[in-house]
Amino acid sequence: MLKMADVTTSDVLYDLGCGDGRIVVAAAMERGAHAVGVDMDPRRIAEANKLAEMVDVGDRVQFIQDDLLTVDFSDATVVTLYLLPSLNVKLKARILTELQPGTRIIAHAFNMGRWQPDAKRAMGGVYLYKWVVPAPLQGTWEWLSDNGKVYRVTLDQTFQMLSGTAWIDDEQVELLEAKILGTRVRLVIQASVTEEPQVFMSCYQEGVLLPAIDSKQVSAGIRISD
After folding, report:
1. What is the mean pLDDT of residues 10-27?
2. How much is the pLDDT for 198?
3. What share of residues in the chain are helix, strand, coil (percent, to 5)?
4. pLDDT of residue 9
5. pLDDT for the residue 53
6. Both 6 and 101 in a single domain?
7. CA angle in degrees (0–180, nearest 5) for 51-10-24
8. Residues 6+ apart with CB under 8 A from 163
9. 143 and 72 inside one domain
10. Radius of gyration over every alpha carbon of the chain, rounded to an integer in angstroms
11. In the 8-state DSSP scheme, what is residue 114?
């Protein structure tokens, strides 16, 4: 799970339903991350604290006895889950609204209902599922291209799935592709069948779409309507 999430020293990992704390301890020992385990069972929390003390990672881990559905985990950059499908689905709304875009979610064995994973991997007869919290892109965006023209897209969003319509200088054109992974956005727009498609790569940050290096987009993409 840690490998699939690509956990690093800069991450804050929350393991919801941490049990004996082994994932939390491994995140601290193997990846140098700050890790927090949450469980409702005080006996499991005691076991987890004992394990952390045994391997001397107490300064990088914390265990909390709390309700998984209400505990504050908004500072997480990685969340790991080994919960029943019903709990995963109940957590989904909080994950999408309270966590920052780009946060990685790894679930063991069970998925998130209609929210399809960005990746899955077989492990020991079960699947691990990975989601990356998508930036909120619903609405109309506008930016300036390196050809001096104003590009505009209206995007409809369901989880990480995007569709929509594009314009160049107020003339409707073809939106060939709209993809998002966390904060990274790729839009492919074609003015006509005789012209090469234009590829725009950007990164969502603080409510705007910042152009990637060497992108044809020369100004930040601004949301002009919801």
Report:
1. 98
2. 96
3. 20, 45, 40
4. 98
5. 96
6. yes
7. 20
8. 155, 156, 175, 178
9. no
10. 21
11. T
Q: Residue 124's pLDDT band (boundaries 50, 70, 90)?
A: confident
**Whether residue 201 has pLDDT greater than 90:** yes
| CATH number of 7's domain | 3.40.50.150
Above pLDDT 70, what percent of the chain? 100
Q: Do 88 and 177 belong together in one domain? A: no
Look up residue 24 and give its two tokens. 């939390």
Pick the last residue of a domain from 132, 165, 181.
132
Do 106 and 173 fall within a single domain?
no
Which residue in this structure is represented by tokens 């909120």?
Answer: 136
SS3 of residue 48 by DSSP: helix
Number of domains, the chain:
2
Structural domain that includes position 159 = 139-225
What is the token pair recorded at 131?
């989601």
Beta bridge partners of 129: 107, 120
Q: Which residues contact 87 (CB under 8 A, 6 or more apart)?
A: 17, 68, 69, 81
CA 15/CA 224 separation, integer angstroms: 38
Token reading at 165: 């319509």
Phi/psi zone of residue 65: left (φ > 0), alpha (ψ -120 to 50 degrees), beta?
A: beta
